[in-house]
Write a structure and sequence with these properties.
The protein is of the alpha/beta class. It is 42% helix and 15% strand. The chain has helices spanning 25-32, 37-46, 63-81, 88-98, 110-117, 134-145, 159-172, 199-217, 220-228, 260-267, 294-302, 322-335; strands spanning 17-21, 49-53, 56-60, 122-123, 128-129, 148-152, 178-183, 232-236, 248-252, 275-280, 308-312. The strands form three sheets. A six-stranded parallel beta sheet has the order 8-7-9-10-6-11, with helices on both faces. Strands 1-3-2 form a three-stranded antiparallel beta sheet. Strands 4-5 form a two-stranded antiparallel ribbon. Helix 10 (260-267) links the parallel strand 9 (248-252) and strand 10. Helix 3 (63-81) runs parallel beside helix 5, helix 6 (134-145) packs parallel to helix 7 (159-172) and helix 10 crosses helix 11 (294-302). The two termini are 41 Å apart.
Length: 339
């Protein structure tokens, strides 16, 4: 555990250490967290020791771990200086970026610099969202700049979450009149008829991740009202047929489970004043064997079309639990022919 500033233990001059100065004591308190819980997490992750002495932190440990800890602490403090908060997920992100290496084995700073003071900010009713990786930043910029954007990559990289955040931001600012969120209800298939309730009750379980994202950005009462007024719609992909989606921000999630015909149908729904974000993982297709994924076909057909944006995420962009990145990497290795 991190040691209280009131009773610091003696530090041997023989132990390698770094002294960090943080002039704003209020921000330092936020940096350390309640009962120094943030420091404790950094200590445990990097196997270092961090002690508080007034407005200073003393970091002890081997040189590489010590450097990573210092970079992480400085990045988090710089984040606080911009007026943003530091949450547990932010600490994990800073530790992750500090551990990224370039081809020479040296720590690279571009991710951490972006994390410290990202100029890209998505403002919603409940909170502001900042992309945490270079690809996430590229993705968000394209969502604001292009009418059609594909976010491709593994689970946990923020593809859908950021798309919904941008949709809410543009809706709040009046750039679009409504938000439409959709997914293929592939898992349901013929079994929908056996589920209790009306059609909404049947498909809502498959739409829940989209509801979860919206709940992060909009107050509950406002969200309920917007859903009731149909200014926000959440519906299966099949419900898009025959519609022209004008002045809307449209998100198609899990698009790898759309058939070629469904994808073409969906893309041609784009109307005046609308934007589309299509997200999916081309390695996780749940369609029946022999059925071509519309997302895979669309990526091949549209990759060179001017005005369409593509953001390609990798395991390095995973911002969920660190174990998710390890799981994805392990499966990727296992499915390679020479594995």
């Amino acid at each position: 555990m991190a040691t209280s500033a009131l009773t610091p233990p003696p530090v041997s001059e023989d132990v390698p250490q770094t002294l960090l100065d943080f002039p704003d004591n209020r921000l330092l308190i936020d940096l350390c967290g309640e009962f120094d819980c943030n420091l404790a997490h950094i200590e445990q992750t990097l196997e270092v020791q961090i002690m508080r002495r007034g407005n200073h932190l003393i970091v002890l440990g081997d040189s590489a771990a010590q450097k990573r800890a210092c970079e992480t602490l400085q990045a988090l403090y710089a984040r606080l200086e911009t007026g943003r908060t530091v949450e547990f997920g932010d600490i994990k992100a800073a530790l992750h970026f500090g551990g990224a290496e370039n081809g020479n084995g040296a720590l690279k700073d571009d991710q951490l610099e972006m994390f410290r003071g990202s100029k890209v900010e998505i403002k919603t009713r409940k909170k502001s969202v900042n992309p945490r990786t270079t690809v996430q930043t590229e993705y968000v910029n394209k969502l604001f700049a292009h009418e059609l954007v594909f976010g491709l990559g593994p689970a946990g990289t923020g593809k859908t979450y950021l798309a919904v955040a941008v949709a809410v931001s543009m809706f709040i600012e009046g750039h679009v009149d409504k938000i439409i969120l959709s997914r293929p209800a592939v898992e349901a298939g013929e079994r929908l008829g056996f589920l209790p309730g009306d059609m909404k009750d049947k498909v809502d379980p498959y739409m829940q991740p989209l509801y979860d994202a919206l709940n992060d950005f909009l107050p509950g009462k406002q969200l309920a009202k917007l859903l009731e007024e149909k200014r926000i719609e959440i519906a299966p992909l099949a419900f898009m047929r025959g519609r022209t989606l004008s002045n809307a921000f449209v998100v198609l999630d899990e698009a790898q489970n759309a058939t070629s015909m469904q994808m073409r149908m969906f893309l041609t729904r784009l109307g005046e004043g609308s934007r589309m974000a299509i997200t999916g993982d081309m390695t996780q297709v749940d369609l029946p064997r022999g059925v071509l994924s519309g997302l895979i076909e669309a990526e091949r057909v549209l990759r060179n079309v001017e005005g369409i944006g593509f953001a390609r995420f990798t395991v390095k962009d995973v911002v969920r639990h660190p174990m998710v990145a390890k799981i994805i990497t392990a499966y990727d290795k296992a499915t390679k022919p020479d594995a």
